[in-house]
C-alpha cells in the first residue's frame, strides 16, 4: 500500500527540485496552498501551486503540470502568479501559501 502524501513530502520534494524546475520550466517562485497547507487533504485532493514563471509560455505550464503529476501521482492545479494580477482570489491564496 502506498504511503499517503503529506505537506512535508511535497515541500521537501519541491525544495530539492527547485533549481531543476527553474532551469527546465522557467519557474521563478513556487508555493503550495490549499488542502495540503490547511491540513485537510484526502485521497482525492489535488496539489495546488502558485507559480511565477519567467515567461508564461504554454509549454512551460503544460510541461511542469505533466512532470509534477507523474512525480506525485496526483492532479496538479497551477495558478499563475503575476505582478500584473492582484485580484481577491490571488490575495486569498497569498494569505496561506507556503513558498519553497
Automatic annotation (TrEMBL):
<feature type="domain" description="Polymerase nucleotidyl transferase">
    <location>
        <begin position="18"/>
        <end position="90"/>
    </location>
</feature>
<dbReference type="InterPro" id="IPR043519">
    <property type="entry name" value="NT_sf"/>
</dbReference>
<dbReference type="Pfam" id="PF01909">
    <property type="entry name" value="NTP_transf_2"/>
</dbReference>
<keyword id="KW-1277">Toxin-antitoxin system</keyword>
<keyword id="KW-0067">ATP-binding</keyword>
<dbReference type="InterPro" id="IPR052038">
    <property type="entry name" value="Type-VII_TA_antitoxin"/>
</dbReference>
<keyword id="KW-0479">Metal-binding</keyword>
<keyword id="KW-0460">Magnesium</keyword>
<dbReference type="GO" id="GO:0016779">
    <property type="term" value="F:nucleotidyltransferase activity"/>
</dbReference>
<comment type="similarity">
    <text>Belongs to the MntA antitoxin family.</text>
</comment>
<keyword id="KW-0547">Nucleotide-binding</keyword>
<dbReference type="GO" id="GO:0005524">
    <property type="term" value="F:ATP binding"/>
</dbReference>
<dbReference type="InterPro" id="IPR002934">
    <property type="entry name" value="Polymerase_NTP_transf_dom"/>
</dbReference>
<dbReference type="GO" id="GO:0046872">
    <property type="term" value="F:metal ion binding"/>
</dbReference>
<keyword id="KW-0808">Transferase</keyword>
<keyword id="KW-0548">Nucleotidyltransferase</keyword>
<protein>
    <recommendedName>
        <fullName>Polymerase nucleotidyl transferase domain-containing protein</fullName>
    </recommendedName>
</protein>
Amino acid at each position: 500500500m502506498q504511503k499517503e502524501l503529506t505537506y512535508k513530502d511535497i515541500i521537501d520534494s519541491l525544495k530539492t527540485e527547485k533549481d531543476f524546475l527553474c532551469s527546465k520550466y522557467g519557474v521563478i517562485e513556487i508555493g503550495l496552498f490549499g488542502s495540503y497547507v490547511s491540513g485537510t487533504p484526502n485521497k482525492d485532493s489535488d496539489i495546488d501551486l502558485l507559480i511565477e514563471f519567467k515567461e508564461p509560455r504554454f509549454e512551460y505550464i503544460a510541461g511542469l503540470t505533466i512532470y509534477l503529476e507523474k512525480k506525485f501521482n496526483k492532479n496538479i492545479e497551477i495558478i499563475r502568479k503575476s505582478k500584473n494580477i492582484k485580484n481577491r482570489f490571488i490575495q486569498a491564496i497569498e494569505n496561506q501559501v507556503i513558498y519553497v
